[in-house]
Amino acid sequence: MAYSDKVIDHYTNPRNVGTLDKSSHKVGTGLVGAPECGDVMRLQIQVDDNNVITDAKFKTFGCGSAIASSSLATEWLKGKSIDDAMKIDNMDIVEELALPPVKIHCSVLAEDAIKAAINDFRVKNGLAPIESEKVHH
Amino acid sequence: MNIPIYLDNNATTPMDPRVLEAMLPYFNEKFGNAASRNHAFGWVAEEAVDYAREQVAKLIGASEKEIIFTSGATESDNLAIKGVFEMYKDKGNHIITTVTEHKAVLDACKHVEKLGGKVTYLPVKEDGLVDLAALEAAMTPETILVSIMYGNNEIGVIQPIKEISAIAHKHGALFMTDAVQAVGKIPVDVNADGIDLLALSAHKIYGPKGVGALYVRRKGPRVKVTAQMDGGGHERGMRSGTLNVPGIVGLGKACELCGQEMESEAKRLSALRDKLQSALTVLEESYVNGNVEHRLPHVANISFKYVEGEGLMMAMKDLAVSSGSACTSASLEPSYVLKSLGLSDDLAHSSIRFGLGRFTTEEEVDYAIEVTKKAVTHLRDLSPLWEMFKEGIDLNSIEWAEH
């Protein structure tokens, strides 16, 4: 299967690879997926006092599309308020990276990772987690 | 050195130029139908087919009358399994095979089950070999056929064929083997090995695609299979259809070359394979899958823990290899062969199969080592699992959300 140029670009030069201090109350961490399924994403956000994401880092175990989806997600997250970040939809990622149908689950995982990171941040700061209404299949 | 480097010789092999040369006249100049008995065009074609039959037979220690030409090993497997089931249904309805067989065997067996047959799918041991005691225990008076592959396509392990055939025969069953990966790579002898039916394919041994053969024993016992296609009664009535003369000539030539070069080639390839394997298993947390002692000379299947096979292959785009990861399939299920060795799903997802071949050079192997090492390191730098492993976190202690 041929990958799109954007997937290859993110895969070859992944943006924002790394680790933030997960014990900090300013950092939200989302760890989603399972090794058995061949995909695990860890996405972290650093949030300032105005609820704006100032930094985002990821590490991903998975195929090229999974790596590209999480790399792209970190790019999009930086500079966004956490409310706006919550609105990132997996289909935006599918469109941007031109993912084929068999790779849509990679974008779903990236969206799940974003929401998990935000909720981790919210819980750490005494806020209730936001339930996602979207049901993925 | 040409990039990308082809290291997927278990999937298919490039055709040897000597094979192509032998085939060419049979496309136009010598185009006759081998079944045309009444003119020179037919005689020339028939002569070529007869010669190829001898070449194929010689490679596996058979007689030329025991070779049935087919369209490939999938057809041979189907003809053997369904054909034996139909021919021997008065004798019994039970077939024994293993879970690590090629899909052509497994799915032909499933078809037999639909027709009312009983099939036992034997598990394999951790090293990929059949447990002989389990085979013995599975034999019943109803067992008509044991079908176990010679060498495995994914991990390269070689089954104890002599012992398996002896057990089958002791209980009055026939023994069939899918020997696609073994023929032409290691010595295979239908008499010494006790084989009654054997499937082989041309394109795995530097011959053309679309042609293969089924060996059907003629003496001690005389084995028969019911034809699975109706037609002109070619190939002793077992396989109708005008013979693919150029393809058959190519298969014959490919067998002849393997017979001449197999011994030295096996030595050369196993030395290169061992070099590749030792260099890559120096990497932390890398494991060879399957028995390393009883193994085809040109295959190494290695899992690089904490990286995902498909992602890894993308970083190895200069190498044509294959992975046990099935990230592209809708089921997300990794290789059933690796899973049947008891490998956890994550290790199965992390596997790469290197398949060397006649045209693989040492320079290419050296390059493959470099590329693979770099790719594994790159992917591990990106892997949260690798980071956790390095921090001493037990991955089994984490509650993963399966998706």
Summarize the structure.
The complex is a heterodimer of chains A (137) and B (403). Chain A has five helices and three strands. Chain A has 137 residues and is α+β, with helices and mostly antiparallel strands.
For this entry, give a set of tags.
heterodimer; A: 137 residues; alpha+beta; Sufe protein. Chain: A; 3-stranded antiparallel beta sheet; 5 helices; 19% strand; B: 403 residues; alpha/beta; Aspartate Aminotransferase, domain 1; Aspartate Aminotransferase, domain 2; 2 domains; 7-stranded mixed beta sheet; 4-stranded antiparallel beta sheet; 38% helix; 13% strand; globular
Write a structural description:
The complex is a heterodimer of chains A (137) and B (403). With 137 residues, chain A is an alpha+beta fold. Chain A has one domain: Sufe protein. Chain: A (Alpha-Beta Complex), CATH 3.90.1010.10. In chain A, strands 1-2-3 form a three-stranded antiparallel sheet. In chain A, strand 2 and strand 3 form a beta hairpin. The longest helix of chain A is centred in the last third of the chain and has 21 residues. The radius of gyration of chain A is 14 Å and the shape is globular. Chain A starts with a helix and ends in a 13-residue tail after the last helix. Chain B folds into two domains: 142 residues, Aspartate Aminotransferase, domain 1; 241 residues, Type I PLP-dependent aspartate aminotransferase-like (Major domain) (Aspartate Aminotransferase, domain 2, 3-Layer(aba) Sandwich). Chain B is built from twelve helices and 13 strands. In chain B, the strands form three sheets. A seven-stranded mixed sheet of chain B has the order 2-8-7-6-5-3-4, with helices on both faces. Chain B has a four-stranded antiparallel sheet with strand order 9-10-13-12. Chain B is globular and about 75 Å long. In chain B, 53% of the residues are buried. The model of chain B has no long low-confidence stretch (mean pLDDT 95). The interface between A and B is medium-sized, with 32 and 33 residues. Chain B: This is Cysteine desulfurase IscS.
